[in-house]
Amino acid sequence: MTAHKLSELGVSNALKSLNSETVSPWVIEDGKLTKLFQFKDFQHAFGFMTMSALYVEKKNHHPEWSNTYNKVKVQLITHDVGGVSEKDFDLAKRMDRFAG
């Protein structure tokens, strides 16, 4: 999949669509698609990261993320296009499913 940087309107529309299916919203923070996931405990947070890691390695599209106990903060950006792309929204949807 060749990525293209989305326009502000493209990002806004994609965010509305993405957030219509989730309780905890994705936001744009520091120019990156960002979400804080919260899980029951560390084991569930780590399981989410493991499932996500297998998918992102296959797609060769890696998140910026951090984990503190039961929380995982995820930031997505497509570095080679210098912004948020459809690849980021695809990964966000997949991560929402993994967290579900």
TrEMBL record:
Pfam families: Pterin_4a. CDD domains: PCD_DCoH_subfamily_b. It catalyses: (4aS,6R)-4a-hydroxy-L-erythro-5,6,7,8-tetrahydrobiopterin = (6R)-L-erythro-6,7-dihydrobiopterin + H2O. Its EC number is 4.2.1.96. GO terms for molecular function: 4-alpha-hydroxytetrahydrobiopterin dehydratase activity. Belongs to the pterin-4-alpha-carbinolamine dehydratase family. PANTHER family: PTERIN-4-ALPHA-CARBINOLAMINE DEHYDRATASE (PTHR12599). This is Putative pterin-4-alpha-carbinolamine dehydratase.
